[in-house]
Structures are given as C-alpha cells and as structure tokens.
Write a structure and sequence with these properties.
alpha+beta; 3-stranded mixed β-sheet; 4 helices; 53% helix
Length: 87
C-alpha cells in the first residue's frame, strides 16, 4: 500500500481538483509566511496559478516590503516562481 500522501494526490487528480487544492495550500502558506513580516491587515494573498502568487496590498510601502522578501518567499514555498503585487 502506498503512503497516504500519494493516495490523496492520486484521488485529487482523478477528481480533477488537484490544481485547486494545491493553489489553496500555497495561498494559505504564503499568507502565513508574509504575516511574519507584515501585519495581516495590510495585505491579502488573492490567488496562486501556474507559479504566480497574487497579493493585494494596502499601500506602496507594503508592496515594497513584499518585493524585498520575494527571494525568501520563493525559498520557503518552492511552488512560487513569481509574485505579483497590486492595490
């Protein structure tokens, strides 16, 4: 019998929802990672699709703070290849 992770991944793929589940997981992890540096009231992780994480921010100062931490976020969440920040 395979391990539980592989079984779940196969089932999600067969149901056609593997990408949506992965996206939700990445969004949640990115939200937690950014909250280490930025108050949660100042940003919202909107979506993740095909390696691109989209983040809505309250100000240009917050956008700059996120841009300074792009490399760290990419290291922590390997699925993230690019981050788009907007207001």
């Amino acid at each position: 019998m395979g391990n539980l992770d592989n079984i779940l991944k196969k089932k999600l793929k067969s149901l056609g929802i593997a990408r949506q589940v992965e996206a939700a997981d990445v969004v949640e992890r990115a939200q937690k990672e950014l909250e280490k540096y930025i108050p949660k009231e100042d940003f919202e992780v909107i979506s993740f699709n095909r390696g691109v994480l989209k983040v809505k921010v309250a100000s240009s100062v917050v956008a700059s703070e996120i841009q300074m931490r792009v490399q760290k976020i990419k290291e922590e969440i390997e699925e993230v290849k690019n981050i788009r920040v907007g207001q």
